Amino acid sequence: MPASTEERIIRPAQNVRGSLRLPGDKSISHRYGMLAAFAEGVSRFRNFSTGADCASTLACMEALGAQVRKLDDGSVEIAGVGGRVRPAEAPLDCGNSGSTMRMIAGLLAPQEGRFTLVGDESLSRRPMERILKPLAAMGARLTLTEGHAPLMIDGGPLKAIDYTTPVPSAQVKTCILLAGLQTEGTTTVREAVRTRDHSELALQAFGAKLTRTLDAVSIAGSQKLHAIEAAVPGDISSAAFFLCAAALFPGSNLVLDFLGLNPTRAALLDVLTALGAQISVLNLEEKNAELVGTVQVSAPAEGLGATEISGALAAQLIDELPVLAAIGPYTAGGIRIRDAKELRVKESDRIALVAKNLRAMGAEVTEFEDGLDVPGGQKLHGATIDSGSDHRIAMAFSVAALKAEGQTLIQGAESAAISFPEFFDLLDLVAER
Ligand code: S3P
After folding, report:
1. pLDDT at 2
2. pLDDT in the model for residue 5
3. Is 390 a catalytic residue?
4. What is the DSSP letter of 4?
5. Residue at 1 is within a domain
C-alpha cells in the first residue's frame, strides 16, 4: 500500500438495518484463483473477491502463464497452465498480501526455474521463516533477507515431509500442501489448532485426493488438478464489520445472504451469540463443499454482555479480533483477548493499533503481549484514527465510530480496498443516521 492518503469521516448512526450480499471470500478466492491458474482447463468463478489482495494473486498467476479474463457478468475466467508454470522474468509482486506470498511460494518451490516474490512495505516486514523452514525440509532452495521478503526461490524437485506447524497458520499449511501436491510420496501437515480448511476443500473440488483426520491433512504427490466452475460465498470476515455494527443497536435488523459459513471461519457467530446478539441462520447449503447460508442478526434490547476469547478460539477468530476489540467499550462487561500474539505480525501490529485508537476515542484499555483487555461500560468520542494502512483497522474503527459521540476521521481509509473496496458504500447503505 502507498502511504496513507484517503481520509473518511464516519458519522454516528441511530441504527443498522438492511440486507446485503457481500463480495466473495478473500481466502477462498485466493485458493480458487491459484488452483485454477495451476490446473488444466478453464475455470469460471462468480462473486470472486473484489479486493486488491486477490488481484495480486491473479496478477502473479498471469505472470506465471495463466490467462485471466473478467467477463461482462462480473465473473472471472482463468485458463490454467496445466501443472507447469512459465518462468517469470520479473519479480512477482504480492502487494500487501501475505496469503499470496506464502501460498505461491509452496506452488513454485517444486517448479523448475528461478522466482522472486516481493511485496509492499508492510508485507516486507512480515515473518516468512515460517514457510522457509518446512520448504527447506522438503529440500527447497529459498533465500530470504533477514527472515523477510524479497523471497528468492530456486525451484526444483522436492521430497515429501511430515510437518507440525509451530504456529497455527492456514497459509503455512497451504504452502506445504501445494508443494506436496507436486512431490513424490505423501506429505502430511499436522496442526494443534484446526485452522481454516478452504485449501483442503478447494484441492478436493479441483480433483486432488487428500486424507484428513482431526489434526492432520495428508496429500499424495504428483496429482493433476482440473478446472471447476464455482460461486464464491460472501466473505464472513468482511461480514464481521456489519454483524458487529448491527449488534450494537437495539432494534437493529441486518440480513446477509449467500454468506460463507465454513465452520472453521464462523466462530464469530458463536461469540456474538454469547454476547447476547440474536442470530439466525437460514437456507444453509453446500457449494463445492463450502457451507453457505443467510444470516440475520439483531441486537439485544439490554445491550451486549461480556466475553473472553483465548486459546484455539483466538486463532480461529484472528481476523475478527480487531473489530471485536473495537466494540468492547460498548459492551456491559468488556472483551478480553489473550493468546493472540499473531495479531502483532499481521498487516500491522494490530494489538498496538487497536489500543492506540481505542485510547484516541477516550477508552481505557490494557495491552498485553498477546492480547487486550477492553473494559465495558465506556462511552467513546469521535477521534482521528490511525489505520496504519491496515484494512481491518480502518474498518473496525469505522464500526466503533457509529456509536461514538461526534464524528470520527479514518486516516488511510483507502486500505479497506485490500479486502473490501465496497465497505464504506455498504456501511452508508445500512447505517441509519
Ligand atoms: C488466511 C489465514 C490467516 C488470516 C489471513 C488469511 C488464509 O493467516 O489471518 O487473513 O487465507 O489462509 P495465517 O495463516 O497467518 O494465520
Report:
1. 47
2. 77
3. no
4. P
5. no
C-beta of residue 222 within 8 angstroms of C-beta of residue 407: no
Q: Could you give the number of structural domains in the chain? A: 2
Cell 525440509 locates to 137
Neighbouring CB atoms inside 10 A of 3's CB total 7
The one catalytic residue in 319, 373, 386, 390 is 319
How many angstroms is it from 226 CA to the middle of ligand 1?
25
Ligand 1 centroid to residue 350 C-alpha, Å: 14
Rounded to whole angstroms, how far apart are CA atoms 248 and 252? Answer: 8
Residues near ligand 1 (Cβ within 6 A): 27, 30, 99, 169-171, 196, 318-319
Taking CA atoms only, the protein residue closest to ligand 1 atom 15 is 169
- Supply the pLDDT for residue 1: 44
- 219 & 342 share domain: no
Sign of the torsion formed by the C-alpha atoms of 270, 276, 281 and 287: negative
CA dihedral 208, 211, 212, 213 (to 10 degrees): 180
Q: Taking the mean position of all CA atoms in its chain, how far away is CA 351?
A: 17
Q: Do the Cβ atoms of 49 and 65 come closer than 8 Å?
A: no
CA–centroid distance, 26 to ligand 1, in Å, is 10
Host domain of residue 220? 26-230
Same domain for 289 and 270: yes
Question: Mean pLDDT by 10-residue block, N- to C-terminus, for the chain (433 residues)?
Answer: 75 98 98 98 98 98 98 96 94 98 98 97 98 98 96 97 97 98 97 97 98 96 97 98 98 98 98 98 96 98 97 97 98 98 98 98 98 98 98 98 98 98 98 97
Residues 419 and 406 reside in one and the same domain:
yes
Q: Is residue 414 part of a domain?
A: yes
